[in-house]
Design a protein that fits this description.
It is elongated and about 75 Å long. It has helices at about 5-40, 65-90, 95-100, 105-110, 115-125, 135-150, 155-175, 180-210. It has eight helices and no strands. It is mostly helical.
Length: about 220
Amino acid sequence: MSVNGVTSTQAAAAYSYSTYENKVADETTKAADTTDDKQKDSGVVYEPSTESQAASTKKIYTPDTNLINKLKADAEARTAQLRSLVEKMMSGQANTYGKANDIWQFLRSGNYTVDPATKLQAQADIAEDGYWGVKQTSDRIIQFANALTGGDPDKIEEMREAFKKGYAQAEKTWGGSLPDISKQTYDAVMKKFDEMAETAKKATEAAQETTDPTK
């Protein structure tokens, strides 16, 4: 991978995560608003449950606002740090930046130079165990989705769809296919959603077996 490619990939990872996060938050807010409207119309409190659960054991899932705020603040700080680094780099290459419409077009072009310190930092950030690496980024996206839904297993597919929409939006704004690291992150997130769905399914089946005297 070229020096410029490292920086572009790091920026794409940061940008795509920010887009995923915002899209998931938007989709969850819409779902919550719809649920609130239904509650008002019916006069009852929504409590996700399976038919086999008794009313007294129904579980209410509450968003983890503390974790949501922590993840957002952390992501915003790291993204701002990256943006500042890129802006400094652009200021020294005004001619190249002047031909681009925005920061993302500038990075996509690869028509710029990167100093050794920036290269090393970028490589560390997108490494396997780096902040913008596949593992940490996919873990944060899942954490964020769980925090927004309170871990409600009935919301897994809604969060999956929100993530897919966020990825599509990131590609549209980026101006084409995102770098490989973003595609790898997409695959990792989808796999983790699959694992969550399988775990939720097994938990539901176990609960049904416990409450069904015929089994």
